[in-house]
Write a structure and sequence with these properties.
Length: 104
C-alpha cells in the first residue's frame, strides 16, 4: 500500500480543493491507500517536515513536485497548471504524478 500525505496549514485556502482532487484520483484510479492529513502548525514543524507550502502532497515520503530549499515556512504553495498558476494541482496533474510514482 502506498502512503499518501497531504501537508497543509489552516490559513491556506487551497488545501481543501487539493484534497478533493486527490481523493477523486485515488478513487478513479483504484489506488490502494489512505490519505493522511499532516497539519503544519508552526515554523519549527515546517522546517522539520521540509514543508514546501500548503498544499503539498507526498507519496511514500517524497513530494510529487520536489524543490530544493534551505528554509521552510508556513506559506501557500502555487502550481503551474495548464490554465496558469493555481493554489492546487489539477486532477490530471495529480493523476500523472501519482501513476508515475506508483508504477516505479
Amino acid at each position: 500500500m502506498n502512503n499518501i500525505e497531504l501537508l497543509y496549514f489552516d490559513d491556506c485556502p487551497s488545501w481543501k480543493s487539493a484534497l478533493e482532487n486527490l481523493k477523486k484520483v485515488v478513487e478513479n484510479e483504484k489506488i490502494s491507500t489512505e490519505i493522511r492529513l499532516v497539519k503544519i502548525v508552526d515554523p519549527e514543524q515546517a522546517q522539520r517536515e521540509h514543508f514546501l507550502g500548503s498544499p503539498s502532497i507526498r507519496v511514500n515520503g517524497s513530494d510529487l513536485w520536489p524543490e530544493k530549499r534551505e528554509n521552510y515556512t508556513l506559506s501557500c504553495r502555487v502550481y503551474k497548471t495548464p490554465t496558469g498558476m493555481k493554489g492546487s494541482p489539477t486532477i490530471e496533474m495529480l493523476k500523472k504524478e501519482l501513476i508515475s510514482v506508483i508504477a516505479k
